[in-house]
Amino acid sequence: MKNLVLFSVFLCMAGSLGAKESVNQADEISRYKAMEALAKGLFYLEDLYVDPKKVDYSEMVYHALKGIADQLDPHTVVMPRKAFNQLTIDTKGKFGGIGIIVSTEKGRLIIVSPIDDTPASRAGIESGDEIIAIDDIPLKDMKGNQSTDMMRGKPGTDIKLTIKRKGEPKPLEMTLTREVIKVKSVRSKLLTRGILYARISSFQDDTADELKAQLTKHQKIIKGLILDLRDNPGGLLDQAVRISDMFIESGLIVSTVGRSTKNVEREFAHKRGTYKPIPIVTLINGGSASASEIVAGALQDHDRSLIMGTTSFGKGSVQTLVSLPDRSGLKITVARYYTPKDRSIQALGIKPDIIIPLAEPESATKRKESDLKGHIEGANLSSMAESSGMAAEISQWPKPFNRDRQVKTAYTYLRGWSKTKQNPSKAEDKL
After folding, report:
1. Confidence category of residue 383, pLDDT binned at 50, 70, 90
2. Are 241 and 317 found together in one domain?
3. Cβ atoms of 275 and 216 closer than 8 Å
4. What is the domain range of residue 190?
5. CATH of the domain at 263
6. In this structure, is residue 198 part of a structural domain?
7. 175 and 201 in one domain?
8. Residue 429: predicted pLDDT
9. Hey, which residues are catalytic here?
């Protein structure tokens, strides 16, 4: 009965800490009775259930809390110790590993690319390599995320990879020493005519500083910016605010409203530190969520960027992380956020100014002239892209940029802007 008493006391203390002074005595009694019912239920299950292996006390408490969270919203969740630790690592952008980006394709673990200046790149691992064993354990014998979990670990420890490479008659064996890997959240490429492409994959601790470094590096020649937020799931709110502030001189960036309408926080832009007024096209899609939508919404409401692509995900809520005594964690929705013009993004998303699907839609029902038997062949007398030199410029880009329809369209808009005879500040206002 000792466990029952201690657990009941703990629950009562937890409830009283969160109670407001305005809660009357009757409400408190009702609350404690409900907690007592939970405590007794857990006690009886642990003490009487026929299979004691299925009623581990800590597991029951965890699943009871999980059941409560599951009734709230999709983003309020109880996270096991491992998942909570991984989420904390992801926001910092650092982990112990070997420095590779991998993809699972039909049960095969394929290396997408090694990260520069990491054990993987120094060992000569190449894009397209297939990992077939880790520490002599075949991939086919592994379950779930076991392979990626094994590759991460304490810096200074070794790991053996067996790699199958196209053109090599035998598998390659490599022993690598894990290091602290810093994952960059900003990747940029200077395209032709001074147009900079910058992709933000997530909002981590150093994301704003990474983007600022890229802008500063090219500031003398940059004439336009393609800001790619596609498939960016979000991340740290303060980084979204800082990035928006780089391009907005003054005014509201985002409003955050908590459980009470009186609990409102507003973030404002500052003129100091604002980057020079270059035209911007921001790319979004259905995978752009949370912090990505804050940036896109702020730039759109301030007429600072043309938003292009498809409607964003629509996650207009803010979560906070709370660590629990057993090192598991709670991710709790604590507020909703709104764009500078008080638009709610929740379940609505950011609608682009110009809708550009990733690929040309194909009709399965409508026939075209080219489908007709015996149709006359056609050839262009001239090509606008070729005559303007645009096709030649795009052909100089590295992959995958020269195959990305949305990036090419964004480039076309920025290139057209740069060819106008208008005053730059006036032209920018129209974007």
Report:
1. very low
2. yes
3. no
4. 186-355
5. 3.90.226.10
6. yes
7. no
8. 36
9. 290, 301, 315
Place of tokens 């950011």: 350
Beta strands in 277-412 (DSSP E): 280-284, 306-309, 317-323, 329-338, 354-355
**pLDDT tens digits, residue range 268-297?**
999 999 998 899 999 999 889 999 999 999
Find out whether 220 and 254 touch, Cβ atoms under 8 Å. Answer: no
Write down the pLDDT at residue 227.
98
* Domain identity same for 139 and 198: no
The confidence score (pLDDT) of residue 119 equals 93
State how far the Cα of 358 lies from the Cα of 255, in Å rounded to an integer: 31
> Starting from the edge strand earliest in sequence, which strands make up the sheet with 195-200, in order?
186-190, 195-200, 224-228, 280-284, 306-309, 354-355
Q: Tell me if 372 is assigned to some domain.
A: no
Query: What is the sign of the dihedral through the CA atoms of 137, 139, 140 and 144?
Result: positive
| 425 belongs to a structural domain | no
CA–CA distance, 308 with 284 (Å, rounded to integer):
6
* Element spanning 35, H or E: helix 25-48
Residue 158 lies in a domain: yes
Shared domain for 204 and 177, answered yes or no, is: no
Structure tokens that stand for 350 in this block: 């950011």
Tokens 């043309």: give the residue.
306
User: What is each CA distance from 315 to 67, 209, 308, 329, 335, in whole angstroms?
Assistant: 22, 25, 18, 21, 11
The SS3 of residue 355 is: strand
Q: What is the CATH number of the domain that holds 152?
A: 2.30.42.10
For the cut 90, the answer to whether the pLDDT of residue 57 exceeds it is no
Find the mean pLDDT for residues 294-302: 98
Q: Are 314 and 348 in contact (CB under 8 A)?
A: yes
**237-248 tens-digit pLDDT:** 999 999 999 999
Q: Are residues 195 and 334 in the same domain?
A: yes
More confident residue, 74 or 143: 74
Q: Which of 324, 355, 386 is the last residue of a domain?
A: 355
CA distance 344 to 317: 10
pLDDT at res. 96? 84
Q: Which of 181, 215, 237 is the last residue of a domain?
A: 181
Span 32-54, average pLDDT: 91
Average pLDDT over residues 91-95: 68
Question: Do 154 and 255 belong to one domain?
Answer: no
Of 29, 31, 30, 61, whose CA–CA distance to 43 is shortest?
Answer: 61
* Total structural domains within the chain: 2
Q: Cβ atoms within 10 A of the Cβ of 386, count?
A: 11
Beta pairing class for 179-182 and 252-257: unpaired
pLDDT for residue 157 is more than 70: yes
171 and 209 part of one domain: no
